[in-house]
Amino acid sequence: MISHSKPYIDEEDAREVRRVLLSGQLAQDVEVARFENRMGSFIDVKGAVAVNSGTAALNLALLALGVGPDSEVVIPSYVCQAVVNAVLFTRATPVVADIDPVTFNISAEDVKKRLSERTRAIIVPHMFGLPADMKALGSLGVAVVEDLAVALGSRLCGKRAGGFGELAVCSFYATKMMATGEGGMVLGKDEALLATVRDLRAMNDQEDFRIRYNYKMADLQAALGLSQLKKLATFINRRREIAGVYNELLDRLGMPTPYVPADCEPVWHRYVLLLDSDAEPFIRDMNKRCIECRRPVFKPIHRYFGLSGYAVTDDVWRRAVSIPLYPALTDAEVESIVKSLRLVLPKYCTGKAC
Question: pTM score, two decimals?
Answer without folding.
Answer: 0.96
